[in-house]
Design brief:
Order of helices and strands: HHEEH
Radius of gyration: 15 Å
Largest sheet: 2 strands, antiparallel
Strand order of the largest sheet: 1-2
Shape: elongated
Oligomer: single chain
Number of helices: 3
Number of strands: 2
Number of domains: 1
Length: 99
């Protein structure tokens, strides 16, 4: 499986969990989309440092080749899925008194 396929699958799974399984529905909330640019800014900053200095390198055959701030565009998809799922679980567990 390529990094591209894994990143797209991650977004699809996170969205399905958000909307249908956990039913947190962050994707439908304005506050999520209004604050996501903050997360995106710092993700691009850290990815740019790590990939620009070749601390992290990717196999060109496993990615599309499109880059933003030195990082493959797939990193944005993976980061989105990771943040969405983390926030979903935080809210879902919080509603159950677990956190």
């Amino acid at each position: 499986m390529t990094y591209t396929a894994a990143a797209v699958l991650g977004v699809l799974v996170a969205a399905a969990l958000d909307l249908f399984v956990l039913r947190v529905r962050l994707l439908g909330r304005v506050v999520f989309w209004a604050t996501y640019p903050l997360i995106l800014f710092f993700q691009l900053l850290s990815n740019g440092i790590l990939t620009g200095r070749t601390i992290v390198m990717y196999d060109p055959a496993a990615i599309l080749g499109w880059r933003i701030a030195h990082a493959p565009v797939e990193d944005l998809l993976f980061g989105f899925a990771m943040v969405l799922l983390t926030l979903d679980l935080w809210i879902w567990w919080g509603r159950r008194g677990i956190t």
